[in-house]
Every structure is written in structure tokens, then in C-alpha cells.
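Page 47, continued from p. 46.
Same chain as before, 426 aa.
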Amino acid sequence: MPYKITDITIDKDKKGEIRDIPVQKKRATKKNTTKQTPDEPSVPQADPHPMMDDDTPGIGKVKFYLIGVLLIIAFVCIIVWTINPQATVSIMSQQAYIEVEELPIQSAIAIPLNYTYATSTKVSSYQTIQQKSSGKVTFYNEFSTSAQTLNIKTKLKTASGLVYYTKSAVTVPGYKKSGTKIIPGTIQVSVEAEKAGSNYNVSSGQKLTIANYAGTTRGTKLYVKSGGITGGSTEKKPVFSNKTEESAETTALQYANSLFADSLRGIQDEPGVIAAYSSSTLETKVTNTAGASGSGTTTVTVSGVAYRIEQAQIVSALISKYRAKIREQMSDTVDIDVTSLGADSIGGAGNISIVNGNPVIEKGTWRIYTKYDPENIKRYIQGKNIQTALNAIHANSHSRAEISINPFWVRTLPKHLEQIHVEFKR
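Result:
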């Protein structure tokens, strides 16, 4: 509660009059210790916290400015959002479900698969293998103008005593004359050496005699020349353990399957492409090579083939056989051709396999569906309102569609193709 100080003033005319003079309330301030002269007027002290007064307008102005900035930013965002909308077009494809029997796929691209595996082994024993020489010889008849007949296994000899036998009966034509010149009758026949060995190999042109006519005029004028008798040999062949071969073959197949699957994964990742491959069609070839001190190497070569199949090839095969059934389940306006249809198998059935070395569609259920180029769809709906765009889609693809635009208040599709997203629902 404020106090009043009673001040007594003396007036010359009004002596002893008393007046109450109210004293104004002052804010407490730090005591001024500076001396003042009696005639010096007092200087008011500055308020150390001028913004703390309730009637200061600074805080209110800041709030007002902040709200204004936020409203401007929101307005700009709405404008930008409105002039750059994003549209999503969902097209419901027409479908047909076909029960397919085994069906070959034409024009698939074959991909050769090869893998070689080698492992060390040991020679268990050696086997001597002998091979007889064989080849062709020519009989010459300068003995008679009449044909000369010789039986199968007619014995022939070289000058060094090596023996050969004819593999068939032979009739040598008689000779002919040209003036005084004799032109011998000739015929060629196959022969085989009596024994195995490389020493029975005879070079072309070497003369042989008919053993039964040796030392006679007939034997001199009915003779034989070699056309090259080769292939004779005697060698020791190492024998390897069957268990080693079987183990190497099993391991090689495991590695080959893994390697082939990895190499085909890149093809599988291509849109609309299937890599058909079957491990049961792989072929193996085992060879053994002997080294020093009974050691050796077993080599297994694995070979096979995979096929790169495009979806268009599958669709073509399905259309060629099931066109009528597809037409029954689709609108008459749909073009039943490779460019407008796609296909996929249902429930894991209807896969692609290799049968007799060729890719086939297995027995199962396949779904045939309409498909269209998304870029073409974008071109004939860009810049149109939603209803006009829906009508255009139906007219061009004969399919139902749904269109959503973000933000929701925009009712016209963007003019820029990159702002339109097309998806097909099956």
C-alpha cells in the first residue's frame, strides 16, 4: 500500500495551511552514489530490462512474421505440386487360361555348355593292346586276257616275308593290248596283316606276291602292289581304378551343374527371357593319362546345351495350337498375335524342359494375357482429363483401367510422359 507524505508549506497570506501532496510510485532502481550539487537536476536511471514490459510489441511482431512466412511457403508448395502432378495408370489385362499338352518351342537359341575337371590318380596295372595293320592293295593281271579269280583270304607276302590276307574274294580282269603294249587288268581289294605290330605297316607302292603262285610265271605276271597298309601297333595301356573314374565323374557333374546354373542366371534376369536347361541331358567323357612312377591324371569333360527362349517364342507356340481357345476367353477386339499377348505358367506347372535335346513346354496350365507398350499408352492419354483418358485406353487396348493423380484435386493428366506411370494388373 503506497504511503502519503504530508508536506507543510507556509504562505505569506495563508499561514499554517496544510496540503496533501501525493507521491508518484517509482520503480526500484540501483542507488546512485554520484554526488549532485544542490542546483544540478537529477537524471533518471535507464531500465536494465526494457523488453520485459508487458506493453512491449516485439514478441507479437515476430509471431506474425513467422506465420506469414509459413503461409507463403505452403502456398508455393501447393502451386509447385499442382503444376507438377504425378499420375498412375493401372490397366486390367484381359486373360485366358489354357490347359497345355507337351508342346515344342521353335527357333530357341542353343547355348553350348562345357566343363573340364581333372584329378590325380594311380595306375593299377598295364594291359598290352595289339592292333593289326590293314589297308588296300591293287591286283595287276598281265598273265592272261582272261579274268583271274582269287578266293577270300588269299595269302599275300612281302619280300621280307610279312603275310597278309584278302578280306574278300577277287576277280582280276584280263589284260588288253594297245599295239604291242600290254595294258594289265586291275582291281583293288582290302587286306589285313597276319599278326599285330607296327612292323606290318607297309608303305604305298611296295610289291607283294601271291603266295600260291610264288616262283611261277603266273606268280610273276599276276602280282600285287600296296596302296598303304597301316595301323599296326603293340602298346602297353595303363589300367586305372574304376572307383577313381566314378568318383571323378560324380564330382565333375556336381561342379558343372553349379557352374552352368550360375552362367545362365544372367539370362534368367533378362526381362521376358527364360534359360531352359536340364542336368539329365549332360554327357560325360572320361580319359586317363599315365605319368611317371605309376601316377596319372583322370580328366572328365562334361558337355550339354541350354536354350535361350524369349517369351514371344512361347506365346507363338501357344497361339499356333490354341488360338481358338484363347479367342473364346477374350474380347473379339483383341488381336491374337505375339506382339499383343504375354504368357506365364500357373502354380509352377507348365515349365520349360529339355526333351530329346529340344526345349518343350511341359503339360500344365498357362495364363495368356493382353499386353501393350506403356510408352504408347502414355502418348495417347497425356494432357487429357481423367474420363477422356479412360475412354482412350479402352478404345486402344480394349481393357478397363484406373487412373489416380497426385495431388488429388488435379483432374488432368500431366503433359510430360515421365510424370505418367503405367502398370498392368493381371
